Amino acid sequence: MRSSAATGESGGEEGARKDRAAGRRLPRRLVHLYTGLVLYGLSMGLQLRAGLGLEPWSVLNQGISRHTGLSIGTVTIVSGALILLLWIPLRQRPGLGTVSNVVILGLVMDATLALVPDISALAVRIPLLITAILLNGMATGLYISARFGPGPRDGLMTGLHHRTGRPLRLVRTCIEVTVLAAGFALGGSVGVGTVLYALAIGPLAQFSLRFFTIEGPGGRIVASSTPAPEPAPLPQG
Predict the structure, then answer these.
(1) Global pTM?
(2) Beta-bridge partners for 221
(3) Can you give 67-118 as a three-state secondary structure string?
(4) Is 118's pLDDT higher than 80?
């Protein structure tokens, strides 16, 4: 009986310790999430101002913007919301990060474009493009490491992967090629920046994820494009 009681007390203390640790990590996770999303929107606006080609989804959003008269930030928000509707048949569940992604990226992108003027000098546009891509890689690591849910486009990719059984890399390639082709047909900007982004963003995001990894109760929590499960409280299982 004493042994069982001691075990119960030990388990309760361990659970309480984990709960306290999780509570201490929450502010840091929120900082990662919102800093990452703001920097991501900033990087999108800077890459557009560089005028040397956008990443695939921004190519599509820019093309739609040119035909609708809406700002590219507004189109980014609307398209993100519409993509979330595709999550329903894919049985994907949004999180705080998902909803925040939809709203913040477009708002920050429009704000960046309002503050940063058009640039004509190539000597400025090239460093601006490189800065934007580096910033995007860092932002990716920040907001994904927060583990509040993937962005709508990442969720679409992982949802199709799970539903079709196709390799994740193949699904992502098919989505981005389709989006890029549609955006280009609508007049979106494709150029050297598009190619450089495609080649660099994977290694940059991977490095950033490792750098911004948040410690968890069972060791280091490695972030992924899908939300990692939280430690379950002992009484609930």
Answers:
(1) 0.81
(2) 214
(3) HHCCCHHHHHHHHHHHHHHHHHHHCCCCCHHHHHHHHHHHHHHHHHHHHCCC
(4) yes
